[in-house]
Design a protein that fits this description.
Blueprint: H1 8-23, E1 33-38, E2 43-44, E3 48-55, E4 62-64, E5 66-73, E6 79-84, H2 99-102, E7 110-112, E8 118-124, E9 131-133, E10 146-154, E11 162-168, E12 174-180, E13 186-194, E14 196-198, E15 201-206, H3 212-245
Parallel strand pairs: 1-14, 2-15
Antiparallel strand pairs: 1-3, 3-10, 4-9, 5-8, 5-11, 5-12, 6-10, 7-8, 11-15, 12-13
Length: about 250
C-alpha cells in the first residue's frame, strides 16, 4: 500500500478546524451584530502577517457612532504591531469620516497592550454623523461586511509551530449609539451600547520555507567550517613535519 502523508500546513489547518469546532461555530443566521475575522495570513517563523476584523450584519438595522474592540491572541508568542483602516471590506466609517480615518497620524486606530498580545481598535465619528449597518439575510447569498480594521502581527523566529486562537474580549468591547429624543431625533445625552456576538479564529504558525538565499547562506556556512578544518589540518601536518626534521 502506498504511503500517504500530510504537509505540515495542511495538518495544522485540519487541527485548527477541529479546534474552531470546539470553540464555537459561525453565527451565520443569528440576528444582531456579529464580529468575525477575515483574510488571515499564515504566520511564518521570523515573518509578519495581518488579518481583518469585520462586522457582518445586524437585525434590525442599527446606527453606529463609535466602537472599541479588544482583540486578543492566545499565548505570549505572536505580537501585535499595529492596525490600519486599509481593509478589503469597506472600513466602517469610510463614508462618514472619523478621527482615525481622517487623521491616523494623530488618532491611531490600534492601541497595543504590554505585553503585545492584545490590541484595542477604537474609532468614533464626528457627531452628528453615523453609519447605519443594515441587515442582510445570509440565505439571500450576499452578506454585507464592514471592516473595523486590519491588524498587523509579528512572529518571532523561536515561536513554536502550531495554531494560535484569535478572540474578541467582549467584556472590554462595545459598539456605541444614542437614544431617541422622543421626536424622531437623536438624544446625544443618552449614550447606549449595542450588544454583539463574536466568532474566534486561528492564526497558523509554520516553519518558513527554504529560499535560495537561505540555502546559499547555509552553503557558505558549511564551506566556511570546511575551510577552517582544512586549514587546521595543514597547520598540524606542518608542525609534525618540523618536529620530525628536528
Amino acid at each position: 500500500m502506498p504511503r500517504t502523508w500530510l504537509s505540515p500546513i495542511r495538518s495544522l489547518a485540519i487541527a485548527a478546524a477541529a479546534l474552531l469546532t470546539l470553540l464555537g461555530t459561525p453565527a451565520g443566521t443569528e440576528a444582531g451584530l456579529v464580529v468575525d475575522f477575515r483574510n488571515i495570513t499564515v504566520g511564518r517563523q521570523g515573518g509578519t502577517g495581518s488579518f481583518e476584523v469585520v462586522l457582518v450584519s445586524s437585525n434590525p438595522a442599527v446606527d453606529i457612532y463609535g466602537f472599541g474592540m479588544q482583540i486578543d491572541i492566545a499565548g505570549t508568542s505572536v505580537d501585535f504591531t499595529g492596525a490600519t483602516t486599509a481593509t478589503t471590506a469597506p472600513y466602517l466609517f469610510s463614508l462618514t469620516g472619523s478621527d482615525s480615518y481622517n487623521d491616523p497620524s494623530t488618532s491611531p486606530l490600534g492601541t497595543i497592550s504590554t505585553p503585545p498580545q492584545s490590541i484595542l481598535l477604537a474609532d468614533y465619528t464626528s457627531l452628528p454623523t453615523f453609519q447605519t449597518v443594515p441587515y442582510t439575510d445570509p440565505n439571500a447569498g450576499t452578506i454585507t461586511e464592514w471592516a473595523l480594521g486590519m491588524v498587523l502581527f509579528r512572529v518571532p523566529w523561536d515561536v513554536t509551530v502550531g495554531s494560535y486562537v484569535l478572540s474578541v474580549d467582549t467584556t472590554a468591547s462595545t459598539f456605541t449609539t444614542y437614544g431617541d429624543d422622543g421626536s424622531g431625533g437623536v438624544d446625544f445625552s443618552n449614550q447606549l451600547t449595542i450588544p454583539f456576538t463574536s466568532n474566534p479564529s486561528i492564526i497558523l504558525v509554520v516553519v518558513p520555507e527554504a529560499t535560495p538565499s537561505m540555502l546559499a547562506l547555509s552553503g557558505l556556512g558549511v564551506a566556511g567550517v570546511g575551510s577552517i578544518l582544512s586549514r587546521r589540518r595543514r597547520m598540524k601536518s606542518r608542525r609534525e613535519g618540523l618536529s620530525s626534521v628536528r
